Structure to design on (204 residues):
């Protein structure tokens, strides 16, 4: 993952801490969103190590509990978290934590959010309402986030403005559209988050 080309991390990490020449600064980023929007896919696409996944097969016990409308072919679900790592450069390492999407696992978000510097919220234009809970969660905690719109197979059903209005996003929240299976899209998302964090830190 060639994040080292960006000037965003040149002399400080996204939290604004100056690099002191010691061990790499560690940044924790959450990847959130509704069930089946592409969180596990994104973590796997950008992680430089084999991602840790806690996926289990959906069974008849989940019928009537998990909302699979729009993703009926999905056979597995994340029951704890996804984990990936990116060594940006010798000074900075990013740890990615993908959150579970089903409502019955939302209690885990309160544990996963500890120490997180920012977040990526994945949205599916076919089911934008599944992103509301994640957006509300980060807004209520003052955690900066960006929106990644998963254009499955490159298909874009709505314009950026339509998505912003539907999600009621503040103008400063970055939005990136693309296929989350592509590493370049994940790179663009994380760079957008880095720039968003740096801008927020410069204001405060």
């Amino acid at each position: 993952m060639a994040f080292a080309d960006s000037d965003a991390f040149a002399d400080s990490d996204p939290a604004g801490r100056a690099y002191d020449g010691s061990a790499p600064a560690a940044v924790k980023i959450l990847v959130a969103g509704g069930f089946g929007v592409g969180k596990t896919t994104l973590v796997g696409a950008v992680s430089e190590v084999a991602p840790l996944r806690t996926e289990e097969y959906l069974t008849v016990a989940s019928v009537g509990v998990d909302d699979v409308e729009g993703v009926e072919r999905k056979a597995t679900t994340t029951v704890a978290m996804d984990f990936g790592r990116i060594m940006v450069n010798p000074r900075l390492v990013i740890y990615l934590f993908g959150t579970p999407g089903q409502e019955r696992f939302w209690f885990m978000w309160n544990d996963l959010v500890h120490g997180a510097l920012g977040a990526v919220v994945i949205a599916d234009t076919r089911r934008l309402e599944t992103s509301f809970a994640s957006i509300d969660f980060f807004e209520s905690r003052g955690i900066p986030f960006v929106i990644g719109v998963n254009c499955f197979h490159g298909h874009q059903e709505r314009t950026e403005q339509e998505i912003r209005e539907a999600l009621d996003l503040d103008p400063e929240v970055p939005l990136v559209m693309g296929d989350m299976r592509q590493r370049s899209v994940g790179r663009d998302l994380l760079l957008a988050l880095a720039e968003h964090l740096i801008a927020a830190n410069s204001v405060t």
Notes: Residues 183-203 form the longest helix (21 residues). The chain is about 25% helix and 25% strand.
